[in-house]
Amino acid sequence: MKYPFHFLRTWIHPTPWPAESFVIPKFQSHRGYHTEGIQENTLAALTEARLRGAEMCEFDVQLTSEKTPVLFHDADLTKFTGEKKPLSSFSLSDLRAKFPITTLQEALESPLAPRFFNIELKTNQLDGYLSQQVAELIKQLNSEHRVMFSSFNPFALFLVSEFLPNVPRALLVTKEVSKENAWYLREMAFAPLLKIHMLNLDQEMLTPDEIQFWKQQQMPLSVWTVNDPNKINGFLEQGISSVISDLDPALIATLVDKIA
User: Fold this and answer.
1) Pick from 155, 167, 68, 47: which is nearest to 110 by CA?
2) Number of Cβ within a 10 Å radius of residue 199
3) Could you report how far apart the first and last alpha carbons of the chain are, in Å?
4) Cα(217)–Cα(249) distance, rounded to whole angstroms?
5) Do the beta carbons of residue 29 and residue 245 sit within 8 Å?
6) How many CB atoms lie within 10 A of CB 127?
7) Are residues 226 and 248 in contact, defined by beta-carbon separation less than 8 angstroms?
8) Largest CA distance in the chain
9) Cα Rg of the chain, angstroms
10) What's the average pLDDT block by block, 10 residues per block, for the chain (260 residues)?
């Protein structure tokens, strides 16, 4: 089924990649390298990813109750403590008493982390607090040249483009039907109004025809989360700009080298 505004895809064109930014690597480590007992979205996971050869990590950022940006994916603490209260209801000190958590500032300042970050703005709110707090911190740390933003939330991307216009931005898209992923998000209805530099698409969306369509639109693509080496190889051969994966960066480096 195609929705009434599906034709808007033809109006989606990329904003040129900022000249002062980095060249996106062909591989991004998903939430850092978080196997072998290392928790995802932590400085330990970022450090391990770099040790295994990753130049870039993708991770999720949310706000604590005092508006501190931290690396965290889930909506609540169920997976860690069994508590169904949202992350935003806890202070940083509360969280640190429960499990390891890394602030965005710690990730950006660490000499042990990879050079580049794909910061997913994890929010379904329209208040703009997350975009503003993250942008202010990146400015404060002079990190504009080593980060990009991604989000399923078009409003978050629009706001962060106002705060940091020269930092690359990617719209995240999946066809998964859920309460949070309404049809206008699945069909990218707001994308023509956004100044995005690339699309980050669910691997289930990327058929050969879809890849060809976006090539015609000259839209760079990242694909997530691909953990099959054969699929990674196939996507890279088809010209996908970057693959986001949980696999060992050392393994993926061999695939990238073969394509290169």
Assistant:
1) 47
2) 23
3) 38
4) 30
5) yes
6) 11
7) no
8) 51
9) 18
10) 70 96 97 92 98 97 98 95 94 96 98 98 92 98 98 97 97 94 93 97 96 96 97 95 97 83
